[in-house]
Amino acid sequence: MTSLLHLDSSANRSSESVSRQLTALFAQNWRALHGSAGYRYRDLAADPVPPLDTAYCTLGRRLERNGLAPMARVADWIRSPAEEREWALTRSLITELLAADTVLIGAPMYNYSVSALLKAWIDRVTFPGAFTDPDTGDRPLSGTRVVVIATRGGAYGSGTPQEACDFQTPYLRAYFRKQGVAEENLSFVRAEMTVAGLVPYLAHQRPLAADSLASARAEVIALGKEPGSRRRACTA
Fold first, then answer.
1. CATH for 4-224, among 3.40.50.20, 3.55.50.30, 3.40.50.360, 3.40.50.720?
2. What is the pLDDT of residues 84-111, one digit of tens each?
3. DSSP code per residue over 9-40
4. Lower Cβ count inside 10 Å, N or C end of the chain?
């Protein structure tokens, strides 16, 4: 069964959130094609992922010192109730991610990067050894498709004065590539100037903002309608 993990990370849970509008549009088209059985939604604002603590770090370092272990054997290395709680939360999020054929991420730009809500999820799921099989070297995310809906209040595209200030999409690209996601399975949709309709001094940019949003909507609809899974055999 084809599956989709849909993550929203905008702190704004209202209908004003452009990233939520666009991820909802993708999910709508995806479900129309594949049905709802494989759809999983996680709102990182409504149900925030707790930041890492000492128990998470202690368990992770213990595994690193001893050569890592498959997820099924991590529990053998737990030495305290705190570590058990941390691993229970962490494992459920990793399992959810690994089960998805497609991961859809709403990623608004906050202060040139991603929101703390998304960063907490990333930190939590990136447990030592989670995305490389320690026995075989296989990368379980090598066939996973990742679609990032990147929204930003200003303009950060190629050739713009603020291009060098975009630490949002380069960061997410570097992160997912590091975890084994193939370049051809990474898609970024960008909607820029999203606050032009709200801020009076940006009123002259509203036509550009409208064009950017229309283009993003068209990309999202096309990506949401792509048939089938991109999963392939894992490679070392």
1. 3.40.50.360
2. 999 999 999 999 999 999 999 999 999 9
3. --S--STT-HHHHHHHHHHHHHHHHH-STTEE
4. N
